[in-house]
Specification:
Two copies of one chain form a homodimer. Chain A is an alpha+beta fold and 112 residues long. Helices cover 32% and strands 38% of the residues of chain A. The first copy, chain A, has three helices and four strands. Chain A has a four-stranded antiparallel beta sheet. In chain A, helix 1 packs antiparallel against helix 3. The first copy, chain A, is globular, with a radius of gyration of 14 Å. Chains A and B meet through strand 1, strand 2, strand 3 and strand 4 of A and strand 1, strand 2, strand 3 and strand 4 of B. Strand 4 of chain A pairs antiparallel with strand 4 of chain B, so a sheet runs across the interface.
Chain lengths: 112, 112
């Protein structure tokens, strides 16, 4: 993956998975696993991009973009990803919310 | 607004505005304006919640949630918000992307 930045997505429609989370104080390899999951997601069919930011206050937002609902379902079921999801629920996140949304339109700085 | 956290949104469907931005070094009242815009957004009809995180690296993601496309259009046209949008384009953001998406489903930590 390239360094943190704004994802270059194709023209809509496509899908966004908005994952908002609050971290616990537990580390236990969180950073390594988070990086690995981004690398792995990027190798999945239908992956279009990802954007991620975590505030000093502990709130994190990761938005991944996908061609279809099917691509999202396959990624959710990925074996390595399932291990990470379980560790997230048990150890790393005190709370989270995941929303699946269909991107209908978009514009950037040069076309506002 | 309450402190940074995960938004408590109603059952889907509803809309999300995903605003991803890279900040310039220019300040010029950015923090105050950003806070004011969150307060003002929260007073608009159809507003459902907001989540925001900015990474140490400068990438920020703000997701605001709305009842309808009409509520989003009204907020975009709000006079004070238009002044902030213009300052954002000219001064505060070196780049940004705004995506409007329809949230179709969601789940949280207790119902994954």
């Amino acid at each position: 993956m390239s360094p943190p930045g704004i994802a270059h997505t194709p023209a809509p429609p496509y899908y966004a998975v908005i994952f908002t989370s609050l971290r616990t104080d537990a580390d236990g390899g969180y950073g390594r696993m988070a990086e690995r999951m981004v690398e792995l997601a990027a190798q999945q069919p239908g992956f279009l991009g990802v954007e991620s930011a975590r505030d000093a206050g502990g709130l994190g937002i990761t938005v991944s973009y996908w061609e279809s609902e099917e691509a999202i379902a396959r990624w959710k079921a990925n074996a390595q990803h399932r291990v990470a999801q379980e560790a997230g629920r048990k150890t790393w996140y005190s709370d989270y919310q995941l929303r699946v949304a269909k991107v209908e339109r978009e514009y950037g700085k040069s076309a506002a």
